[in-house]
Design brief:
Elements: H1 2-36, H2 41-47, H3 54-79, H4 86-104, H5 113-121, E1 129-132, E2 140-144, E3 156-158, H6 161-169, H7 171-178, E4 191-194, E5 203-204, E6 208-209, H8 212-219, E7 228-230, H9 241-246, H10 248-263, E8 267-272, H11 274-287, H12 292-299, E9 300-306, H13 314-322, H14 326-329, H15 333-342, H16 345-354, E10 374-378, E11 396-399, E12 402-405, E13 413-417, E14 420-425, H17 427-437, H18 439-448, E15 482-489, E16 491-501, E17 508-510, E18 519-520, E19 523-528, H19 534-547, E20 557-564, H20 570-575, H21 597-608, H22 623-628
Parallel strand pairs: 1-7, 1-8, 8-9, 9-15, 10-16, 15-20
Antiparallel strand pairs: 2-3, 2-4, 5-6, 10-14, 11-12, 13-14, 16-17, 16-19, 18-19
Helix pairs in contact: 3-4, 6-7, 11-12, 13-16, 17-18
Length: 636
């Protein structure tokens, strides 16, 4: 009897524990139901484990999930066209912001310049403002998708945590939607479109600000959505397709007119990075419309170009050559392994080549880029006095379409260094090398853009293929408009690459074993803003446009302002209430300059029409000497 009673009590206790376990599972399921609606089916099994191992698995999952999220954020950030690594910065900020504030002690928050200018000098809005963002800045929403994305209607496949989850859980689905078709149009059945409004590009991946600092700063002067507008666009598209597919230039023209008419003032256009190339393209499009020159004089007061890569970015060449750049080359072996498992070189190369906007930022003018841009390790012995690699005898160069004889490559210098031989390619020769790797891709590029390989190119500036090349296409004849060029200097910026041949696709890779005074892990560095070299940032603004009647027929007044890059420590940034992780108030990084205190103050002065004499030329680099080394034929 006693044994039976004991067994009954144990049975009831076990039943009670099982019931409690089932109840806990139901509660857990209900609690997480909303979160699971946006996740993929294959993650549901991980989040809702069986009752027997629920607690231990959940702890493991949460720890693993956090680790994977941080790792992936770092890698995604490294792939975008900036050295500031937005996703990784965001992950670090999330993990360290509270700790830094605690360590820093009482905050002595420094006001943004807009606060000071509004309160002490009574700055108010004058010119309505239209922002033109750069590459990767604008979120892209799913309007039509494959079955794997249909439930994400109007959710952002670029620029949010959904992008990270998709890469983790279904990489092929994400690539299928983010990549354009081989002819740079929408893939069949897939339609991604840019988000709209100021929120389209104020932040990227949660708290990583892009335009947010400028928007907030101007808001202290009295700006709001009635006199600020974000001209977002699909940054993947060729500049020509922005009009043919989305009527972007027509809509930009209409929005400029609306902003000007409703505020009774001319508009200030503010662009960043590739957005500056888009504005120059828009100017050429406007001038081809009836009354285009008069329209610009009537509606546009100023063009503020922040960090515009006017003469191109070498990392665009390496990205389409091998799916690499400085960010990937500097990874250690462990990070490279994880990166390759998430997005391989081939994945990255194919994705970059699918973006028709990237060739618009390839370097312009071979003579501008005087040093070799690609140095390829050659296994075939080369005599020291050899002038052409073709005399080295037959050597095979693997390509996507098969093997191509090294004999067929363009003329280049061959340099012997003990047992290693390097074939030096100028920029023009690097394009020919790319042509051997992918003939169809290079032909496609040239059908949309004049790559400006000749120093004295006399191509027709009215031809649309030339509109993205400021060495060919002139500024508009709008003498009342002013141009302000603002950019950072003092950061190591990639300008050339050491390559070696590899098996597979892509057939070349950066040789990370090369290190010297100017080269780190196969990437040669120069002065710039961390993304765009100095010559691309400053030559047109400081040298060519002010001197050239051909390229500046209207005699537009151009001011060039350089900002020396300096950083503060994380604790200093926390004490000042600033983004210490992003470099602080004096950073001149390609993206972080959008939060630079002096830049924010200068923009506020321009758009409010106050103290303009203080926004004058400010040169603190050797851009004058570098520009003087180039032949006058470039701009005459």
């Amino acid at each position: 009897m006693t044994g039976d009673a004991t067994r009954n009590r144990k049975h009831k206790k076990n039943n009670h524990q099982d019931e409690k376990s089932r109840t806990t599972t139901i509660i857990s399921t209900t609690t997480h139901h909303h979160q699971l609606e946006d996740d993929d089916d294959d993650i549901r099994d991980i989040i809702m484990p069986s009752p027997q191992s629920k607690t231990s698995k959940r702890r493991c999952y949460r720890g693993c999930k956090r680790f994977i999220f941080v790792c992936l954020s770092i890698f995604v950030g490294m792939y975008v066209f900036t050295n500031s690594d937005p996703a990784s910065d965001f992950a670090v900020e999330v993990l360290t912001s509270d700790l830094l504030q605690d360590l820093a002690g009482p905050s002595i928050v420094s006001d943004l310049p807009g606060v000071k200018l509004a309160h002490e000098k009574n700055y108010t809005p004058k010119h309505p403002v239209i922002f033109i963002p750069g590459i990767i800045s604008t979120g892209l929403e799913v309007w039509q998708g494959a079955p794997c994305a249909q439930r994400h209607f109007r959710q952002r496949f670029w620029g949010t945590s959904l992008m990270i989850r998709k890469i983790l859980l279904n990489k092929q689905c994400w690539l299928q939607h983010i990549m354009l078709s081989p002819n740079w149009t929408d893939p069949k059945g897939i339609k991604l479109r840019p988000a709209q409004g100021l929120v389209a590009a104020d932040y990227l991946i949660s708290d990583f600000w892009v335009w947010a600092k400028i928007i907030e700063n101007l808001s202290y002067l009295g700006y709001d959505e009635s006199n600020m507008f974000m001209a977002s666009y699909d940054w993947r598209m060729p500049l020509r397709h922005l009009q043919s597919r989305d009527s972007f230039y027509t809509r930009l023209k209409a929005n400029i007119e609306i902003m000007s008419n409703t505020n009774n003032e001319k508009v200030a256009l503010i662009s960043h990075s590739m957005g500056s190339n888009v504005v120059l393209y828009f100017f050429r499009w406007i001038e081809k419309q009836e009354g285009g020159q008069a329209w610009l004089d009537k509606y546009v007061a100023s063009f503020i170009n922040v960090g515009g890569p006017l003469l191109g970015v070498p990392k665009c060449l390496s990205s389409v050559m091998s799916g690499e750049m400085r960010d990937t080359a500097e990874m250690n072996l462990a990070l490279q392994f994880i990166k390759e498992s998430l997005l391989s070189r081939e994945d990255m190369m194919n994705m970059f080549r699918s973006f028709g906007s990237i060739p618009s930022m390839l370097p312009k003018g071979d003579i501008v880029w005087q040093e070799p841009m690609v140095k390829l390790k050659v296994e075939t012995p080369v005599a020291p006095d050899t002038e052409s690699i073709s005399s080295a005898g037959p050597s095979h160069f693997p390509s996507r379409s098969g093997e191509i004889l090294m004999d067929d490559l363009p003329h280049m210098d061959a340099v012997e260094n003990e047992t290693v031989h390097w074939a030096n390619f100028t920029y023009a020769e690097s394009v020919e090398l790319l042509r051997h790797i992918s003939p169809s891709y290079t032909t496609l590029m040239e059908s949309y853009y004049n790559l400006g390989l000749n120093a004295t190119d006399t191509a027709d500036p009215d031809n649309e293929v030339n509109w993205a090349n400021p060495l060919i296409a002139p500024l508009p004849k709008a003498s009342s408009m002013k141009i302000y060029c603002m950019y950072g200097i003092g950061k190591d910026t990639e300008v050339a690459y050491y390559y070696k041949i590899r098996e597979g696709i892509p057939p070349v890779e950066i040789d990370t074993s090369i290190n010297d005074e100017k080269t780190i892990r196969g990437v040669t560095l120069t002065d710039g803003d961390g993304t765009v070299p100095l010559i691309s940032l400053g030559y047109m603004c400081h040298h060519a446009w002010p001197r050239s009647k051909r390229l500046n027929p209207g005699g537009i007044d151009i001011k060039t302002r350089e900002y020396k890059h300096t950083t503060m420590s994380l604790l200093e940034g926390a004490r000042a209430g600033l983004d210490g992780i992003r470099g602080g108030q004096s950073t001149a990084d390609h993206v972080d300059i959008m939060g630079n205190y002096q830049v924010l103050e200068d923009i506020a002065k321009i758009v409010s029409g106050r103290d303009l004499h203080e926004v004058d030329d400010n040169i603190c680099s050797d851009i004058s000497a570098k520009s003087a080394e180039l032949p006058d034929e470039l701009y005459k």
